[in-house]
Design brief:
The complex is a heterodimer of chains A (121) and B (166).
Chain A lengths: L2 H5 L10 H5 L3 H11 L3 E2 H7 L4 H13 L3 E6 L2 E6 L5 H31 L3
Antiparallel strand pairs in A: 1-3, 2-3
Chain B lengths: L9 E3 L5 E8 L3 H9 L1 H7 L7 E4 L6 E7 L5 E12 L3 E8 L7 E10 L2 E10 L5 H14 L1 H12 L8
Antiparallel strand pairs in B: 1-2, 2-8, 3-4, 4-5, 5-6, 6-7, 7-8
Helix pairs in contact in B: 1-2
Classes of the chains: A mainly alpha (121), B alpha+beta (166).
Chain lengths: 121, 166
């Protein structure tokens, strides 16, 4: 599932709009996509995507800074997982966007009803 | 009695470039097409009050321009050029909202009628000379830079019912 689609299903507590910047980068969205299925080690992310380990680590650092992923150590491995709560600003934006479209199209719907009641297309 | 379809528009992001909006209307396809493409109709529903300007030259290569005025006098302007015109089922047009100069798009509107209900599928495909990824990036940067402004714009532009608090 692409991350943008996933955002539409997420709703929890809030955070910063830096999230917009963090997911503006295509590679970072790929990393988030890779983590939707569950927690993964850096090596596994590198294997999944055609990116170098330093590249992946750099992007993971940015994603950690805005709270989109959380890291824990297990032995020598560092495991990353998605923190969906921090996608909230995007979710909110989408919800407002959807509401805005609904308002407009509800107006159009009402207008169509009026026209049909008047019987003048 | 026909069902109330208010709030039934669905907004989806099927991929990195598109915004897909679907909505059904209890009306024949020819009427829906007219309401979407005739200035006398569009100016009645596009904005939360009657448009100040609404011109539509409905032919391939023809331009449209919608201007709405907000409470504070700010003008909101949408414009574009028709690329395809196939009444009553389809139009394709360029789309530029002057509040989002980085987010020009191509909008395709498809209509399909079944059992007296017309389904509208509107797809906005955002584009950029430098290509798809750069466009998505600039789109999101644009959203971030003008996040509050965007909220205000959306509220002012579309929301006449006060559903967004504050």
């Amino acid at each position: 599932m692409p991350i943008l689609e996933y955002i539409g299903t997420v709703a929890r507590s809030s955070t910063t709009s830096d999230v917009f910047n963090a997911i503006a980068e295509a590679h970072r969205r790929e990393i988030l996509d890779a983590l939707i299925a569950g927690e993964k080690a850096v090596g596994a992310i590198v294997n999944d995507l055609s990116m170098s380990q330093p590249q992946v680590s750099k992007h993971l650092r940015v994603l950690s800074e805005v709270g989109l992923v959380r890291c824990r150590a297990e032995g020598r491995r560092r495991l990353y997982r998605l923190e969906p709560a921090h996608l909230r600003p995007l979710h909110d934006w989408l919800a407002k966007y959807e509401q805005a479209w609904n308002d407009r199209l509800d107006r159009m719907d009402d207008y169509l009803k009026d026209l049909q009641q008047q019987g003048e297309p | 009695m026909t069902p109330n379809r208010h709030g039934s528009a669905v907004v989806e992001l099927p991929n990195d470039r598109d915004i897909l909006i679907t909505r059904e209307f209890e009306a024949p396809i020819a009427l829906v097409f007219d309401v979407l493409t005739k200035p006398a109709h569009v100016s009645k529903w596009f904005f939360d009050r009657e448009l100040k300007e609404c011109s539509i030259d409905l032919r391939v290569g023809g331009n449209y321009h919608f201007v709405g005025v907000m409470d504070d006098g700010t003008e909101m302007s949408f414009r574009g050029t028709y690329l395809e015109v196939e009444p009553p089922t389809r139009t394709v047009q360029t789309w530029l909202f002057e509040g989002w100069p980085d987010a020009d798009a191509v909008e395709s509107v498809d209509l399909h009628e079944a059992h007296g209900v017309t389904k509208m599928t509107s797809k906005l495909t955002f584009s950029d000379k430098a290509g798809r990824d750069r466009m998505i990036k600039s789109g999101f940067e644009g959203i971030q830079e003008s996040y509050d402004r965007t909220e205000d714009l959306l509220r002012s532009l579309f929301d006449s019912k006060g559903t967004v608090s504050g």
